[in-house]
Structures are given as structure tokens and as C-alpha cells.
């Protein structure tokens, strides 16, 4: 398909379009590409397999098998985060889950022989973890590779690691690679085993053999009018848009694929509008550099990783990219990569995330770094469902984050944590210069946590039915566990501060207080403003004395009935 600049509107007839290599728009200006009718155009890379082509292994339980050379892939690496690119199966639009043991929850190591933390000194030999688990060694196929998906130490750091060996006498299990944080507390070494044929024992679960290209699954077709299944197996970007200007993509559904749906790079005013991103093994949309590009009125569902990533703007000059995500529904994301794979990830300057509905994910909803973002009027519910010490809206460990405004969001029904709390809004590890205004937080473990930063504004928020904590503003630089981050000037806070021209405009004009940090006590949480927040049926606020001394704090607590 050749597109020339003289074309203003390209209308794609309704239908399903199966592609095997990326579509590319490069150097195109003033173009609209749209489906003929809403939901009428589907772009996919998946194979459609009629049910009659499946081999029935067990009619009683509905176990089927299918083999294709197209599904053969190279062995998985010894360790990886969340997803190695295996095929995904969709029946009647619902993704099947790769087989696991146990079917729900985790196994906890009986005892840990060696934590196996990845050494900081690169010249030191890396020793993976060793542990005992009587539960695991009874339930695996010795002839097949065994992979474990775990929160090995913290429930905000997931990783899949292959088992190197299991001693049949002692039961000692040795992993094939070390985990960055080792194995141990606070999680105690939580994991589950995955992708063995013996684990296929419930509806909508499947095993995949990368050597033979075979899938085996359980599904009852008796109550559905389904004639075929979809298998997503290809790994490329469906639509690449680069160096374009004034382009709109409308009314197109991107479905059943194992990588990005749309990648937009170095472009201006490119808009994805009224589209659907559904059933993607990795992330959905990436926007990098350029300006004023984004997504509106679109639906994203069943994603293996992040929903939408926005990168752009210039930090030194605080020039805004003005990329945006507005009026979108994003749900059931981070299905594979279970931590730091939010619905929307912001990096750079001046992005807008507004009026979106975000729900059902194990970890963050919105994750940001950089400056001058607007995160407003979003409805966020049922996230942080499977992690601890997490935030629905999260940033951290940077004094130079000034200018972002988080306002008028509704956040509710966060997951309970096994250790520490999950927070609606979490400004971690001295994040500074951020405004949190007029948000409503309800029916969650905890409300707002500010980890010792400077010049944060927390005003006019309503926090209700948050029993663990409402508002916490600490001075963690004084605590033993965080002191070394301030004493060691090679750690992340100082290099990030030194990388910014804080003595020159616009930084010297907008954030003059950054210049004080080098000569000041860096641990002081100066300049906080906490006013007019309503606390209802929740734990009382916990504000450090240093925050009172060096800021403005006026706490009011309303008693709910």
C-alpha cells in the first residue's frame, strides 16, 4: 500500500487484515487513515485455527492440542521479566493463561540456603539462589525446563528464572540465574512454577512447547458459538509512524499480536482516535520524541506489559512535548510483566493524562518521571492488586521532578498488601515539587505517601475508608535505612540533581530552592504545604515533626458515621 502526500483521507473497507510485517508511515503529512465504520477494521498478525483442526486429547475435560512449525521458537533465557514472547491463545476474545502450579497464589520457600543476590561489583561471580521447597519438587516434569515466576524478595520486583537443578535426595533447588535483590524477606521468596503439561488442569489454561510448536489447552466449547481460536505468535510492531505531521488513525482495531500495536516516533500532531488495542503480548502504544501526539477515546484491554508510553520534551529547557492520553479505557494490563508496567508511563516534560478509566492490574496505574505533567480527572480502581509498597500513581527518587500536577482523580479499591501498604498516590524517596490537589481516595488500604521530598503541595484531597493510613509525610533522610542515599553522592539523587542546570533559567526562576540542596541539610523536607484535606473513617495523618517545622501544615479530620 503506497500513500502519497496528496492523499488526504484513506478509508479502509471493513474487514480483517492479517499482516506479517510492519506497516510503515514515514514522512507523511496531513493524512487521515480511518476504518469505514467503528470496529469494522481489524489489523492482526495472528493465525486463525478452526476447531475442527484441533486434536482432541480428552473429550471429557475438553483438552485439545495443536502443532504448527510457525509456533516454534528458540529456548527461553535463564531469566527474564514477565514474558519471553510465547504464543498467546484467544477464544471468543478471552486470553487463555499459560499453565502454572499452583493455579492461584504462590509457593513460599521452606528455607533459603543461599539468597543469590546479584552482586554490585561486576567482577564478583554471580551466585544464584538455593532453597528448599517440598511442594515444588513433587510437581514437575524432570524432562522439561522448569521456570519459576517469583516475587523473590520484594513484591515490586518480579522475575522469571529457570531452575538449574533439583537434588533428588536433599530436595535442594538451585536457580540458573541470580535475582537483582536476591531471595528472602520481606516476601520470603514467593513464586509459582509455569508451563509444564502436567499443570494444564483447569479451564482456559495451556501448555506451550517451544521446540515442537505445540500448544495444549483445556476449554469447553459446548456453550459457545465459536468456530475457531486465535493464536498470536508474531513479534514486530504492527504500525510504525515516523517523521510524520498531522496524521490521524481512526476506527481501527489492533488485535491478537505479541508486540506493539503502534509506535510513533519523532512526529508532530499524530493522533490515535477511537481505536482498540486488544490482546497484545507486550505493550500497546509507544510515543517517542516529537510533540502533541497521543491517544483519545480508545480502548486498551488484555495487555502483557505497559499500555501507553509517552517520552518527549526537553528537561534542560523544560520544553513541553504535550503528548496526551485522554478519554481512554485501559484495563487488564501488566498480565505478564507484573511490576512497573502501568496503564500510562510518562517520561520527559509536559504530558497530559486526563479523563481515563484505568482498572485491573497487579501494580501501578500511572508511573511518571520528569516535569510539568498533568494527571487529572482519571478514575482508577482495582490496581496494585498483587503487590506491596506500591502506588496507583507513583514517582520517586528525584528532587528535580517539579511542576507535575495530580488533581481531581478518583482512586479506589486498591489491593491489600502483604507487607508495607499500597497507596493511591505515592511520591517516593524525596520526589519534590509536585502538587496533589482535589483528589478523592476511597476504600483502599492507604491514601497519600510523601517520602520526605521538598515543596510538595497536598491540598483539598478527600480520603475515606483507608484504615492503614491516610496522609503520611515523612523525613526519611533522617532514618537509617535511607541515610546512605544522601551521604553517597554517587547514588541516584545527586547525579539527577547535578544533571540539571538549576542555576540557569528557567530552572533558577521556577525552582530556586533546588540550588539550596547542596549547601543545606539534604534530609530536610522543606517547603511542604498540607491544607484542607478531609480525612473520613481513616487512619489519622502521620506528619513528621520536620515537615511541620519547615512547611505549612493544617490537618483536619472529619469523623464519618
Please report the total strand number as a whole number.
54
Give Rg in angstroms. 25 Å
Low-pLDDT residue spans:
1-5
Q: Beta-strand percentage?
A: 35-45%
Please bin the fraction of helical residues: under 10%
Largest sheet features: 24 strands, parallel
Number of helices: 5
Give the termini distance in whole angstroms.
Answer: 65 Å
Overall 3D geometry?
globular
Return the average pLDDT rounded to an integer: 94
Overall SS class: mainly beta
Topology readout:
Layout: E1 9-12, E2 15-18, E3 23-26, E4 29-35, E5 41-44, E6 47-50, E7 55-58, E8 63-67, E9 79-80, E10 88-91, E11 94-95, E12 97-98, E13 100-101, E14 107-108, E15 111-114, E16 130-132, H1 134-137, E17 147-151, E18 158-166, E19 172-175, E20 190-194, E21 205-209, E22 214-218, E23 228-232, E24 239-242, E25 245-250, E26 252-257, E27 262-265, E28 268-273, E29 276-280, E30 285-288, E31 294-296, E32 299-303, E33 308-312, E34 324-326, E35 329-331, E36 344-348, E37 352-354, E38 357-359, E39 366-368, E40 374-376, E41 379-381, E42 390-396, E43 405-407, E44 410-412, E45 422-428, E46 435-437, E47 440-442, E48 446-450, E49 457-459, E50 462-464, E51 469-473, H2 480-487, H3 493-498, H4 507-510, E52 529-536, E53 542-543, H5 545-550, E54 552-558
Parallel strand pairs: 1-4, 2-5, 3-24, 4-25, 5-26, 12-21, 24-27, 25-28, 26-29, 27-30, 28-31, 29-32, 30-33, 31-34, 32-35, 33-36, 34-37, 35-38, 36-39, 37-40, 38-41, 39-42, 40-43, 41-44, 42-45, 43-46, 44-47, 45-48, 46-49, 47-50, 48-51, 49-52, 50-52, 51-53, 52-54
Antiparallel strand pairs: 6-23, 7-8, 8-22, 9-18, 10-11, 10-23, 13-20, 14-20, 15-16, 16-19, 17-18, 17-20, 18-19, 21-22
Amino acid at each position: 500500500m503506497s500513500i502519497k502526500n496528496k492523499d488526504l483521507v484513506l478509508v479502509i473497507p471493513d474487514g480483517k487484515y492479517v499482516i506479517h510485517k510492519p506497516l510503515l508511515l514515514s514522512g507523511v503529512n496531513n493524512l487521515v487513515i480511518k476504518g469505514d465504520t467503528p470496529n469494522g477494521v481489524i489489523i492482526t498478525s495472528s493465525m486463525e485455527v478452526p476447531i475442527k483442526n484441533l486434536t482432541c486429547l480428552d473429550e471429557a475435560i475438553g483438552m485439545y492440542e495443536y502443532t504448527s512449525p510457525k509456533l516454534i521458537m528458540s529456548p527461553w533465557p535463564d531469566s527474564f521479566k514477565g514474558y519471553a514472547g510465547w504464543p498467546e491463545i484467544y477464544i471468543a476474545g478471552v486470553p487463555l493463561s499459560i499453565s502454572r502450579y499452583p493455579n492461584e497464589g504462590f509457593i513460599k520457600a521452606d528455607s533459603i540456603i543461599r539468597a543469590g543476590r546479584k552482586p554490585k561489583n561486576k567482577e564478583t561471580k554471580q551466585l544464584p539462589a538455593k532453597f528448599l521447597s517440598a511442594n515444588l519438587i513433587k510437581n514437575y516434569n524432570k524432562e522439561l525446563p522448569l521456570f519459576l515466576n517469583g516475587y523473590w524478595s520484594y513484591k515490586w520486583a518480579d522475575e522469571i528464572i529457570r531452575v538449574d537443578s533439583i537434588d533428588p535426595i536433599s530436595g535442594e533447588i538451585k536457580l540458573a540465574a541470580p535475582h537483582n535483590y536476591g531471595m528472602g524477606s520481606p516476601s520470603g521468596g514467593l513464586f509459582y512454577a509455569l508451563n509444564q503439561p502436567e499443570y494444564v488442569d483447569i479451564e482456559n489454561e495451556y501448555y506451550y512447547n517451544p521446540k515442537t510448536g505445540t500448544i495444549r489447552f483445556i476449554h469447553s466449547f459446548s456453550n459457545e458459538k465459536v468456530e475457531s481460536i486465535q493464536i498470536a505468535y508474531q513479534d514486530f510492531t504492527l504500525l510504525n509512524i515516523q517523521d510524520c505531521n498531522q496524521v490521524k488513525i481512526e476506527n481501527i482495531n489492533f488485535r491478537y499480536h505479541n508486540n506493539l500495536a503502534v509506535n510513533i516516533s519523532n512526529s508532530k500532531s499524530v493522533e490515535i482516535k477511537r481505536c482498540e488495542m486488544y490482546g497484545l503480548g507486550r505493550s500497546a502504544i509507544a510515543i517517542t520524541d516529537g510533540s502533541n501526539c497521543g491517544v483519545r477515546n480508545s480502548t486498551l484491554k488484555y495487555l502483557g506489559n505497559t499500555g501507553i508510553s509517552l517520552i518527549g520534551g526537553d528537561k534542560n529547557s523544560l520544553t513541553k512535548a504535550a503528548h496526551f492520553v485522554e478519554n481512554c479505557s485501559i484495563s487488564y494490563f501488566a498480565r505478564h510483566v507484573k511490576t512497573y508496567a502501568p496503564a500510562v508511563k510518562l517520561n520527559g516534560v509536559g504530558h497530559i493524562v486526563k479523563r481515563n478509566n484505568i482498572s485491573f492490574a497487579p501494580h501501578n496505574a500511572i508511573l511518571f518521571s520528569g516535569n510539568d505533567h498533568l494527571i487529572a480527572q482519571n478514575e482508577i480502581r482495582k490496581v496494585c492488586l498483587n503487590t506491596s509498597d506500591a502506588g496507583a500513581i507513583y514517582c520517586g527518587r528525584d528532587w528535580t521532578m517539579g511542576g507535575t500536577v495530580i488533581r481531581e482523580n478518583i482512586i479506589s479499591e486498591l489491593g491489600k498488601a502483604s507487607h508495607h501498604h499500597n497507596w493511591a498516590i505515592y511520591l517516593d524517596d524525596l520526589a519534590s515539587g509536585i502538587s496533589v490537589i482535589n483528589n478523592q481516595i476511597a476504600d483502599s488500604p492507604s491514601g497519600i505517601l510523601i517520602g520526605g521530598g521538598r515543596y510538595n503541595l497536598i491540598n483539598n484531597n478527600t480520603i475515606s475508608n483507608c484504615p492503614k493510613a491516610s496522609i503520611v509525610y515523612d523525613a526519611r533522610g533522617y532514618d537509617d535505612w535511607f541515610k546512605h542515599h544522601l551521604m553517597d553522592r554517587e547514588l541516584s539523587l545527586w547525579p539527577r540533581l547535578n544533571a540539571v542546570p538549576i542555576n540557569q533559567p528557567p530552572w533558577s526562576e521556577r525552582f530556586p530552592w533546588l540550588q539550596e540542596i547542596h549547601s543545606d541539610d539534604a534530609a530536610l523536607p522543606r517547603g511542604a504545604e498540607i491544607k484542607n484535606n478531609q480525612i473520613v473513617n481513616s487512619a489519622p495523618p502521620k506528619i513528621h515533626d520536620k515537615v511541620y517545622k519547615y512547611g505549612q501544615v493544617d490537618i483536619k479530620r472529619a469523623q464519618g458515621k
